[in-house]
Amino acid sequence: MLMPVTLLNTERIKLFSTRSPWWCALLGFALPVCFAAMYATESGDFLSLTVPATQDGYRFGMAVLMVLGVVAVTGEYRFGTMRTAFQAVPRRWAVLVAKTAVVAAVSGAVGEATAFASWGVACLIRPDVDLTLNTPAEWRSVAGVGLVYLFASVIAVAVGVLVRQTAGAITILFIYTLLAESLIAAVPGAGPAIVHWMPFYASRVFLEAGLGFDAAGSAPYGPWGGLLYFGGVALALLGVALVVVERRDA
Questions:
Q1: Which are the contacts of 225, defined by CB distance < 8 A and separation ≥ 6?
Q2: How many angstroms separate the CA atoms of 139 and 246, rounded?
Q3: Which stretches are transmembrane (predicted)?
Q4: Is residue 190 in some structural domain?
Q5: Cβ neighbours for 113, distance < 8 A, ≥ 6 positions apart
Q6: Is the pTM of this model over 0.85?
Q7: Does residue 241 belong to any structural domain of this protein?
Q8: Of 112, 106, 103, nearest to 147 (Cα)?
Q9: What is the dihedral of CA 155, 157, 159, 160, to 10 degrees?
Q10: What is the pLDDT of residues 38-85, one digit of tens each?
């Protein structure tokens, strides 16, 4: 059996052996930064520029990095290289854990670079606005983006493993992240209470609590509790994917 470091190096080489991960990383970085630049340019009397506002585009980058997580898995199923990897490493879970670790590390690094670049661009465009990171909440809203990207990519890999088809997995993720949680929140009566336990809502509480996200105050956990819950859901979903992949045909 391959050693863990060898597995990680193998997955790193496989991930960056095609152009799609490079494009995903580039787009995942560029989209939020461009959004921050446009927001800063248009800000004024009717559009307030604040530290959390510089991060409003993070969801676009997160969506692109989730596509990277899906493609990293489904691409191998599509071209049959996953079967070869499972033949070389009989413990399939080890292959997928290594792949998840590499994808999560890349996504987290891109997310962190994106967050500070978005903030930096806004500072350059509007030097007259005080965007200094003065409070723990402001630091969390910027430095925490990388952690959200990291756990979001774990969810994406898990969904890719379970679905094994690129279009299907991406559709499920996009419908859920862009539509499902908002619809749940709009359900009269129970909706606002249920949405607190939706993973991406919890990630928003982590990033935006105390910074204008009024609904975060009614969540039964604090910002760091939101991150723990989001990460717990991601790891639980990955655990389900690992169990499934051990029991079904490659």
A1: 202, 219
A2: 41
A3: 21-40, 60-79, 100-122, 142-163, 170-195, 227-245
A4: no
A5: 29, 146
A6: yes
A7: no
A8: 112
A9: 160
A10: 999 988 767 889 999 999 999 999 999 999 999 999 988 888 888 888
What does the alpha-carbon distance between residue 125 and residue 120 come to, in Å, rounded to a whole number? 9
> Does the residue 203 lie in any domain?
no
Containing structural domain, residue 114: 4-181
Distance between CA atoms of 22 and 19, rounded to whole angstroms? 5
Burial class (CB in 10 A: 0-12, 13-18, 19+), 128: exposed
**How many distinct structural domains can be found in the chain?**
1
Token readout for 169 is: 């997995």
Nearest Cα neighbor of 170 from 157, 183, 180 is: 157
- Provide the 10 A C-beta neighbour count for residue 183: 11
Are 47 and 100 in contact, with CB atoms under 8 Å apart? no
Residue 27 domain-assigned (yes or no): yes
